[in-house]
Amino acid sequence: MLDIAFVAAVLEGIEGTLDELVGRVERSDLRGRLTSLQDETAAVRDLFEASATACAESVEPLPAGAHVEP
Fold first, then answer.
1. Is the pLDDT of residue 38 over 60?
2. Cβ-based neighbours of 12, under 8 Å, separated by 6 or more
3. How many C-beta neighbours within 10 Å does residue 41 have?
């Protein structure tokens, strides 16, 4: 299973790539579609980041000397 923070980082990279493409594409219809895709990617990344934050906040620290079986 992939780490949620890793997935969010990959999506952030995709957003940056899409931003570069938007700046270089001349056709406005294609720029519009790329911008829409960038917005959707950002929304999904936000969901992953919120999920990662929720998971991190729900993890309770173990008492001193506690042992967890793998």
1. yes
2. 45
3. 19
pLDDT digits (tens, 9 = 90+) for 1-20: 888 889 999 999 999 999 99
Q: Taking the CA of residue 65 as centre, how many other CA atoms within 13 Å lie in the half-sphere pointing to its CB?
A: 0
Query: The domain containing residue 43 runs over which residues?
Result: 4-58
In a domain, 69, yes or no: no
Q: How far is CA 30 from CA 21, 22, 27, 51, in A?
A: 10, 8, 5, 32
Residue 63 located in a structural domain: no
pLDDT surpasses 60 at 47: yes
DSSP 70: -
Q: Which pair of structure tokens corresponds to residue 34? A: 């790329």
CA gap 67, 70 in Å, rounded: 10
